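thought: fold this chain, then report.
action: predict
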Amino acid sequence: MRILCDFEQLIVSWFRYEPGEEGPEPHIHRQHSDAFYVLEGEVDFGLGPDVKRLTGDPGTLAAAPPNVVHTFRNSSDATAIFLNIHAPSMGFGDVLRGRGREHFDQFDPPEDGGRPFDAAIFKRAGEGERVEHETTSHLIKAELPELSLFEMTFAPEFEGVDPHTHDDLVDAFLVLDGQVDFIVGDEVRRAGPGSFLAAPPGTRHGFSNPGPEPLRVLNLHAPDRGFTGRLRS
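observation:
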C-alpha cells in the first residue's frame, strides 16, 4: 500500500490485493465515510445490514457513509488495485503506519444492522450523473457532505482552471488518461496517468490540458462544500 495524501479532511491510500486476500471484517464508521475506487482487477464489496456482496471492476466506486456496514476482499484469481478514501481521515494514517487503532473511528456492526443498503453508494464504470458542457464531460460518482468524487474529462480545447485556493477543503486529482499541466504554487508540472495531486486548504493550484488527447482525471473534494451543486450549474 501507499499513502498518497494524509490531511485532516482526507486520506487517500493506494492498495494492491493479491488473489484471495481478505480485507477487514464487516464494520462501521460513526463519524466518517469510507470509499473505494477500483483501478485494476476486481474487488468484492459487502455493504449494508445483510453485507450484500457486489463485485466492482475498474471504474467502480463503492462508498459507505457513517453507520453503513461494509467490508471488502479480492475473491478473484487476479491482482486488484484500488484507492481507499477516508473523509475525514480520523487518524486512519496512524492505523496504516501500524501505530494502533484503539482511537480510530471503527466499530463492529450494531445490533440493528446499521443504516440500510440504500444508504451506501455503488456505481460501476460509466454509472453516475452526467454533466456535459462544450469542452468538458463530468460524471458525478458520489455526493456526500464529507466527500464528493467525480470522473472529469477535459477536451484539448478546454481553457483550463486558473490558479486558486480553497479555504476549507482538500482538492485532489488522480490522472486516469492523457496529460495535464498542474499549477502547484508558482510552478507548472506536467503529469501523466497514475500521477496524483492533492491541494490542502490555502494551497494555490490549477490545471490545464496540454493536449493533444482528452484529459481524464478522478477529482475528490473533501468536504464537498457545495462544489457538486456548482458543477451542475
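thought: worth noting. The chain has a mean pLDDT of 97.
final: C-alpha cells above.
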